[in-house]
Amino acid sequence: MEKIKMNTPIVEMDGDEMTRVIWKDIKEKLLEPYIDLNIDYYDLSIENRNETDDEVTLESAKAVEKHKVGVKCATITANEDRVEEFNLKRIYPSPNATIRAYLDGVMFREPVVFSCLDILVPTWKKPIAIARHSFGDIYVSKSFDVKKGETLKVSIDGKEKYEYSPDYDAIFLTQYNKVESIKYFAKESFEYAISKKMNLIFSTKDTVVPGYDSVFKEIFNKTYENYKDEFEKLGIEYNYYLVDNAIAQIMKSEGNILWALKNYEGDIMSDLISAVYGSLSLMESAIIGNGTYLYEAAHGTVTAHYRRYQKGEITSTNSVALIFTWASGLEKRGELDSNKELHDFGVKLKQAVRETIENGFITGDLIKSYNKENYTKVNYLEFIEKVNEYLKKRLN
Ligand code: NAP
Ligand code: MG
């Protein structure tokens, strides 16, 4: 078979620990034999971030802006322990935060759903994905102590808008968002729903925060007008609900919903959704912004498995989300470049992963939720080998 060609590069951000090990195997065993990979490579390992004083992180984000499509391996977020472990010059910020801030995108998180794996909410037969606005609100907030008898004043260009003088010791919070960013969040949410043929729900608490949250609500409702025809054509729906009502609606649903949420609710609900679908290793994640697409797995570097790997164990770490990361990246690259062969390769790679699991070849983390009679527990290498077998059949 002749290898698939790539005209434009995909940005590759390499990472740390167990995911770095598996990442390399995925590339060598599932991609390189079939594709003439065209890659703009950035090593985001903690060692190289330290070496480059973290400049490599920003460079990699700029590369995604340039080439439009990237794939990211999981990376260590530094803390005191890691400073000691790797003899770091300082505590570097989370690479994800740096990249997200630069790309100013919307974060999407979506589970890979299998009928042979039980989930905590049995009625959810199809994926529930989260679109999280990843800018602003309490993530850019400032707190002020206001002591009994003190007065806090809010003014705009000297014009007083609000005054607060409590007769108790109090704590006061300010937060903001950018109107442009909210518009963008809405647009990307509608487009993602269309691309996945999912119903879209947007929710805030505009009854309690009428000024602030109404802006979000109105922007979403207005944006919907641009997409109404397409939604109707595809037979999907858009609904706005108060956030508590949204929870009730979603619990009763069978899935196939993209749930768009403000920054804080999105942060929390994306973890809740991951928990329901069983394993973090089955969660895909994407940052989509200004025509750029960056894919990654939702999980971290799986340090606990890496410690055992370092002692010589071939762990049963699940590589589904990492393989899907590459597959989605190649699919998107193919789509943007009208490179059908490359796009279809991504689709087939995902199908091969599905076949592997549906035929009972599963990693340890999936055993508890597996609901068919027979399964074979495989280690991470055996899993990739199995995927490769199914992939070969599909490519022939
Ligand atoms: P983690 O890497 O997600 O792993 C937590 C636990 O979840 C693992 O010990 C394992 O449980 C299970 N798990 C996660 N992914 C799995 C997989 N693919 N296959 C099988 N089991 C899996 O979280 P962490 O241990 O809290 O964080 C490790 C490092 O990752 C930290 O340095 C953190 O900063 C970083 N991190 C990076 C990202 C990112 O780059 N996007 C995200 C989160 C965390 P068992 O041990 O019970 O098998
Ligand atoms: Mg969180």
From TrEMBL:
<comment type="similarity">
    <text>Belongs to the isocitrate and isopropylmalate dehydrogenases family.</text>
</comment>
<dbReference type="Pfam" id="PF00180">
    <property type="entry name" value="Iso_dh"/>
</dbReference>
<dbReference type="InterPro" id="IPR024084">
    <property type="entry name" value="IsoPropMal-DH-like_dom"/>
</dbReference>
<keyword id="KW-0464">Manganese</keyword>
<keyword id="KW-0479">Metal-binding</keyword>
<keyword id="KW-0560">Oxidoreductase</keyword>
<dbReference type="GO" id="GO:0004450">
    <property type="term" value="F:isocitrate dehydrogenase (NADP+) activity"/>
</dbReference>
<feature type="domain" description="Isopropylmalate dehydrogenase-like">
    <location>
        <begin position="9"/>
        <end position="387"/>
    </location>
</feature>
<dbReference type="InterPro" id="IPR004790">
    <property type="entry name" value="Isocitrate_DH_NADP"/>
</dbReference>
<keyword id="KW-0460">Magnesium</keyword>
<keyword id="KW-0521">NADP</keyword>
<protein>
    <recommendedName>
        <fullName>Isocitrate dehydrogenase [NADP]</fullName>
        <ecNumber>1.1.1.42</ecNumber>
    </recommendedName>
</protein>
<keyword id="KW-0816">Tricarboxylic acid cycle</keyword>
